[in-house]
Sequence to fold (242 residues):
Amino acid sequence: MIDVRNLTVRYGDTTVLHGVSLAVAEGESFALVGESGSGKSTILKALVGQVDDWQGQMTLAGHALQPGRRADLARQVQMVFQDPYGSLHPRRTVDDTLAEPLAIHGIKGRDARVLAMLDAVGLPRRFRFRLPHQLSGGQRQRVAIARALMLEPRVLLLDEPTSALDVSVQAEILNLLKGLRAEKGLTFLLVTHDLPVVSFLCDRLAVLRAGRVEEAAAVATLRAAGLRSAYGRELLERSGLV
Fold:
């Protein structure tokens, strides 16, 4: 579903990704882990066209990607961001937020689709006409997930989707994502620094450091504390999994 080969990204004179390669199968949940600045989020931005200065090859759902925004792939891939307040327009109701993708792509049946998606992410229908400041952090992230799913994409790119939430709410959102993946057959590419989240939600992971892949492994290897790179073992020791 996602194939990245020799991806190099530069911000001005600074190279932030050095020939990164990874592949994510259809229906798989794959994690990119590493400290801040390792290049994890840059991979997601390159996939959705928010980064133009890149070299290499990328395909998504069988489509070869070129630098630039790709409106034609919006119904294949969507992104959920870290900050559920910053990613929602403060003056748009939940209804407006969820309906906007439908209007952009000329999809009818607004009311039925909005209500069905509220149900899918576990938000009471009475929240439909509330504004973001009237919702809790977890409720706002449910809205953000619902918006990402309105076009029925096959791939979700998840950029630290729970790190801005309280611990108790994190578990709720992770359970929601796990259930939605199973129900809708979604493919996940998750960026996180939290290895317990990877252990719960993912099948495989790649460890990034300074824009390079240190190693890739199955989550079973992570759970068995079997990461082989020195940096992977360092992350394990910090995580509390060992």
In short: The mean pLDDT is 92. Strands lie at 2-11, 14-24, 29-33, 54-60, 63-64, 77-80, 155-159, 187-192, 204-209, 212-218. The chain has two domains: 25-51+69-76+153-242, 88-151. The chain is about 35% helix and 25% strand.
